[in-house]
């Protein structure tokens, strides 16, 4: 299941996200969105977890929690249109 993580501090790393999500279950991948032109973080990321139950627990447990000084938004990722 793909999870959207928004309102990220610009100094959050993929390792920070992996560490936040791993207590809920295995993490398949972490992808921080970066601006194509500047390479700077865009303030959101996607985390993939293979087990839907673990992903649901992570969404419930992390939505609104503070990560590096900012309350993050965590939800199931929507398909691109």
User: Which stretches are poorly predicted, pLDDT < 50 over at least 5 residues?
Assistant: none
Major β-sheet annotation:
4 strands, antiparallel
The number of E-state strands comes to 6
How much of the polypeptide forms β-strand, as a percent range?
25-35%
Radius of gyration, in angstroms, nearest whole number:
12 Å
Instruction: Tell me, rounded to a whole number, the average pLDDT.
Output: 96
- Helical content stands at 10-25%
At the fold tier of CATH, the topology name is: Alpha-Beta Plaits
Q: Which word captures the global form?
A: globular
CATH architecture: 2-Layer Sandwich
Number of domains: 1
Describe this entry's structure for a reader:
The chain has a single domain (about 1-75), classed as RRM (RNA recognition motif) domain (Alpha-Beta Plaits). About 25% of the residues lie in helices and about 35% in strands. It contains two helices and six strands; from the N terminus they run βαββαβββ. It has helices at about 15-20, 50-60, and strands spanning about 1-5, 30-35, 40-50, 65, 70, 75. The strands form two sheets. The protein has a four-stranded antiparallel sheet with strand order 2-3-1-6, covered by helices on one side. The chain has a two-stranded antiparallel sheet with strand order 4-5. A hairpin with a 6-residue loop joins strand 2 (about 30-35) and strand 3 (about 40-50). It is globular and about 35 Å long. The mean pLDDT is about 95.
